């Protein structure tokens, strides 16, 4: 699975929210590191690396890197980018207005990423499964 997140600003808070959202996805336990990738701006990879240093999700160690190009070809599980519909197994997240209403899976509603909408229908179609906890705190679930 891949988690895709996109944003406009407030790097540190959004990096922290990126890590938080990733904790509420049912990632496969495959023994491989869970890799956070960043394309473009919006999150500082160094700050993201600080946030995830020494932490795990479902027993998987975490790492962060900046990439260009295809996230699957770069070993990404979690991607911060402007991609809305990235295909099966890829969780898309953005702070673009109406992102969830238009088929994206998680839409940050403010600059710090602490409030969000979820499009569960789109996530289900892509094979992404959220824990029930994140669905209860979302402002709106489609």
Named CATH architecture: 3-Layer(aba) Sandwich
- Describe the sheet with the most strands: 9 strands, mixed
- Walk across the major sheet and give the strand order: 3-4-2-5-1-6-7-8-9
Q: Helix and strand succession?
A: EHEHEEEEEEHHE
Structural category is: alpha/beta
Oligomer: single chain
Q: Proportion of β residues?
A: 15-25%
What is Rg? 13 Å
Describe the overall structure:
- By secondary structure, this protein is of the alpha/beta class.
- It has one domain: Rossmann fold, CATH 3.40.50.
- The protein is built from 4 helices and 9 strands.
- A hairpin with a 2-residue loop joins strand 3 and strand 4.
- The chain is globular, with a radius of gyration of 13 Å.
- The relative contact order is 0.23.
- The model has no long low-confidence stretch (mean pLDDT 83).
Features:
142 residues; alpha/beta; Rossmann fold
Outline of this structure?
The protein is α/β, with parallel strands linked by helices.
Q: What's the arrangement of secondary structure elements?
A:
Layout: E1 2-5, H1 11-22, E2 34-38, H2 45-52, E3 56-57, E4 60-66, E5 78-80, E6 90-94, E7 106-108, E8 116-118, H3 120-125, H4 132-137, E9 140-141
Parallel strand pairs: 1-5, 1-6, 2-4, 2-5, 6-7, 8-9
Antiparallel strand pairs: 3-4, 7-8
Helix pairs in contact: 1-2
